């Protein structure tokens, strides 16, 4: 299937590993000119060598004022894949923790999108794909802060989608469930410490909660990202697509 994005320029954040790397791989395979962004130069260089035709830009998206520097380094793009990292774990009633998480996920992600929107508007074509989490549809202590700030980003993205639709730009979110990455392993280890269970027990319980009985692979999320970025998805916008192994039981989400 031709996704109609060969030759498009795609910028993928958090691209040195995990879901971001999976998105970069698939977009490159579809013929996109891929710019991979990450903050660790060594890891980024190693990742770039595995994605044909890609180039890397070192940037810490948590730094103030990084957006214009990244725009200057990358130039205008057709496809922007935001991929905010793991937000701080902590109490929902601790103001400093909540403010830090809000700044690092919805606020800075929207600022990044805002930096690249003028170029998309000028071109009359653009795709924004935000990697969030299936935690936006759930509540609970384990993912309370992470889910809350990503839910904020989800709402902002849906509102922005309506604002820019007439400019030929779509804005969507992917909400992955557990994906077999280092980030998932870190989460499992943290839950094991918090609950007193073994890492194997936490991992087994998480697998048992999935109807498919397996974790997603980064490239599977990347394939969904490429479709949402494609010409075929031109009339899909303002949506959040779950990729959670069937765990979410709400039929109308």
Automatic annotation (TrEMBL):
<dbReference type="Pfam" id="PF13561">
    <property type="entry name" value="adh_short_C2"/>
</dbReference>
<protein>
    <submittedName>
        <fullName>SDR family oxidoreductase</fullName>
    </submittedName>
</protein>
<dbReference type="InterPro" id="IPR036291">
    <property type="entry name" value="NAD(P)-bd_dom_sf"/>
</dbReference>
<comment type="similarity">
    <text>Belongs to the short-chain dehydrogenases/reductases (SDR) family.</text>
</comment>
<dbReference type="InterPro" id="IPR002347">
    <property type="entry name" value="SDR_fam"/>
</dbReference>
<dbReference type="InterPro" id="IPR050259">
    <property type="entry name" value="SDR"/>
</dbReference>
